[in-house]
Design goal:
Layout: E1 3-6, E2 19-23, E3 27-32, E4 38-43, E5 47-53, H1 56-60, E6 64-70, E7 77-83, H2 86-104
Length: 112
């Protein structure tokens, strides 16, 4: 399953920004910019935890923001801001990251 969402403004929930998020079984891709485009990827097996937050205005317009805590060096906290279907995408991220870790046989250990 693939989710494609655009970052939206808090006011009216309109997609007026030039940031889009593509979330698949293998990786999370963030594309941002208008003249200078930046594409950033994070592999799904590196996602350790996901947090969903909804401010008052986000709830009012049916939006939410996700924070993915990863083992990635470039983005230890990957923020997916002001998207629709945030709770559904959060559940997808949790199950897809667990499945990706099983496929790669990646083991997450905490520092002692």
């Amino acid at each position: 399953m693939i989710y494609t969402e655009k970052k939206r403004t808090k006011l009216f929930g309109l997609p007026l920004t030039f940031t889009s998020y593509t979330i698949s079984d293998e990786k999370i891709t963030i594309t941002s910019g208008f003249l200078n485009i930046t594409v950033d990827d994070a592999y799904m097996y590196k996602v350790q935890d996901v947090k969903l937050t909804k401010s008052f205005w986000e709830r009012f317009y049916g939006l939410g923001s996700l924070t993915c805590y990863t083992g990635d060096t470039t983005h230890p906290e990957l923020r997916i801001l002001h998207i629709k279907k945030a709770s559904e995408i959060k559940e997808f991220l949790l199950t897809a990251s667990e499945e990706a870790r099983r496929k790669r046989r990646a083991l997450h250990t905490m520092e002692i």
